[in-house]
Design goal:
Length: about 325
Amino acid sequence: MPNTYQAWGWTPGAGLDGLQLLRKPLAQPGPGEVLVANRAIALNPVDWKICEWGHPDWHAGTVPGVDGVGVVAAVGAGVQIPLGTRVAYHQSLSRDGSFAEYCLVDAYLLMQLPATIDEGVAAAVPCPAITAWQALAKVPQGASSDVLVIGAGGAVGFYLAQLAVQRGLRVWATAGSRHRAGLKALGVIEVFDYHDTQWQTQLQAALGERPLHALFDTVSGAHAASLAHLLGYNGHLVCIQDRQETAPLPAFSSAISLHEVALNSIHAHGRPLDHRALRAEAQRLLQQVADGQLLTPAPLEFAFEALPQALRQLKEASTPGKWVTRLA
């Protein structure tokens, strides 16, 4: 095992332009930790956002990146995972992340990969698929089974639409027109082009007397608030970006419930029971992908050395798909 490793380091206040390819000393895992030799790394919107916004726990040289897949290279005291085990993980934003050849991860975060899954495909699962599962888990059964996924062309929305269909819900979605055929093939009833200023009217006409039970918004808290009026009585507004600081509708009107989704918060606020539940669900999602029951977004592969450029393209959303790099 080498004494140093290659990693992308962050520069305070410099955004994506400040990412630098560094060599860092390779630390050995402490009690309860695992050293993962990364084989595939996936990019997520949170990665470029935190690089630009900064984070209270980051300093010069902090390694960004939340999602990775690799093999167990070393284990700390109390860890029983065999060396060489293939694993995926979703790293805390408060620690050095996945944009590196190696990553130190708490053992309870690791998800073992199904034998048949490709590592690049597996890297595209943790952050968006677990977020989608958490969002759907917020919503109980209601009088109506109609739900709306805003931004189903993105990774989280893509997984969410599939999981909602699997749950037996009547799924409607907004996305760019290029995503319509693919989403309808997955069981989405109709896909409305968000560029069309009449899409809300078209949705309401299609629903008729059926109330909208839940709305999942992947854009922003303000955007979600602007759509709250679409929900029926006792409906659910689920924010996957931001949250609702004030109620978007008058009190004692349609009595909707407001939900926030914050996957990273489990690292600071989750209990062992939460960690076990998330890991079990993540492994179920990975198995569904391996079995072909859950599709991942189209892969967009890039060279590790071109990671900042790929993050810029992700930010610009110029190409649909999931950005993944493979490491030797």
